[in-house]
Each structure stands twice: as structure tokens, then as C-alpha cells.
Amino acid sequence: MDKNALRLWKGFWQTADPKIWVASTIPMVTATVFAYVFEGAFNLYWFILTLIGIYLIEIGKNAIGEFADYESGVDLYVAPDKRTPFSGGKKTIVDGILTVKENKVIAAITFAAAAIIGLYISFAREPMILWIGLAGFALAIMYNMPPFKLCYRGLGEITVGTAFGPLVMAGTYMVQTHSYRIEVLLASITLGLLITNVLWINQYPDYEADAQGGKRNWLVRLGKQKGLVVYKALFITSYIPIIMLIFVTSSPVWLICLITLPIVHRAIKVAEQYYDDIPRLMEANAKTVQIYQLTGLTLVVAAFMTLWL
Predict the structure, then answer these.
(1) Contact, 288 vs 266, CB < 8 A?
(2) Rounded to whole angstroms, how far apart are CA atoms 175 and 168?
(3) Cβ-Cβ contacts under 8 Å for 102 (sequence gap 6 or more)
(4) What is the pLDDT of residues 47-58, one digit of tens each?
């Protein structure tokens, strides 16, 4: 492989950033397990196609974010000491790995491939996927892309929560079952709130750069200290749908999801102490991701437990 091909290969995977696909993998797996538990439905072929389609949309969204944030100047304003694994974009353009044009090509190709998969699923398996897929495409494109730039206008948080919570879970569940139910909605709200909190705490290292680049997300609007109130509120409200699941299913097994409470307490404590000390804040960033992952896992375990208890 020549140097240019190696550069493109490295740049593609840096833009794709598979480690963050956990954001969509968790709701997809949770919805698939719910489909099996509540409806006895599971089709591996359609699950894999759904997985690939959503991953392609994620890659396309990342590529748009790369060139949109670069062109707005946001990525250029991120100070070296504020660059973290949790924030600051994929850094393919600022590090000279890919060009703006190359990221645009990646976005176009991955969105086109995702569209083909989505159309196939909607015509061959579940018609509702056409509308859910269109909503997913719209949010992914409008998140960073001018003139919409939702994440620059204080709409990024709700976009992420909606896309990686209710939208992904509804689509995945319907592909498997051709139906929908309240348990899926409640679990998706919990995951949506938690992934929003992942985004929220990850905005702290980029706070100054976002403010300079005109990225008026809600953390920039509120300020770092007031932003802690939102961080805590998102954690607290994420448990409400879990409690509701207990009553909807008449089963206490969902209480297993509350094992995250000690981690939540620690994450909040760290954030309160070090919200303006980025290296020390990283513990809170990591724990917020862990809480999201563990909640997804416990929702899956609890769902299986309803079969036996």
C-alpha cells in the first residue's frame, strides 16, 4: 500500500472512529433483545443490515462534523491542552491526515450506501423504516451542516438524545417485529437522556473553542458552573423511565439498572470539583460513558430476567 493510500485508509478510520459506535450499538442491541423477549422475534440478517446502515450514517455524520467544524474555525480554536479522547472532533483535517474535500467524499459515499440499505429494508422488510430512516438522515446531516447547524443553535443535545434513543430503538425494534410497544419507548428515553449527558460532559473541554467559533450549544449559553445543574438533572431523570418499566411490566427486575447510582454519584462529584480542570475532569467523562454502557447492559439483563421471574 503506497503512502497516499495508507493516509486515506488511516484518515477514513480516524473519521469513522469505531470506538464511539457504542452510542448506536447499545440502543440497537437493547431493542433487538426486547424484540426477542417481548415478541419472540429475531432475524440475524436484518439485524446485521440495520447495524451496517446505522454505522454508515454515523461515519457520514462524523465526516460532516470534520469539515463543518474546520470551516467554522471551531477545531482550530481547540488548545492543545484541551484536546481529549472525548472531544475536539476526529482531528483528521487539523492534523493534516485528510482534506476537507476528502471528508466530503466520505460523507457522500457513506450516506449513499446507508440510503441504499435503508430503502432495501423499507421495501423488503418494514415500510416504517422509510420514515424513521429519513428522520435519521435529516438529523445526521442537519446536525453540523450549514445552513442548519443544529449543534451551533442549541439543538444539538436534543438531536443526539432523539437519534440515539427513541429513533434508533424504534427503527431496530420495528425491523425485527413490525410493531412497537411502551417498554421500548421507556428504555429508549433512558438511553437518550444518558447519551445526551455523554455529549454534555464532553462539551466541557471544547467550551472555549465552541464559544469562539460561534457554536452556541447549551453549555456555552449557560456556562460551565450552571451546566452542572443540567448534568445532574439528566442523570436523575434517566431513572424515571426505569421506574416506570417496573409498573408497566409488573416486574421488579428493572431495579438492577439502579446499580449505576454509585458511579453517577462519583461522576457528579468529580464534575463539580473539576469542571474547569480538564485533565482531572476526564474521570467524569469516562464514567458518564460507563454509565451509558452499563445501563444498556442492565436493561438487556433485566429484559431476559423477565422471561424467568
Answers:
(1) no
(2) 11
(3) 8, 11
(4) 999 999 999 999
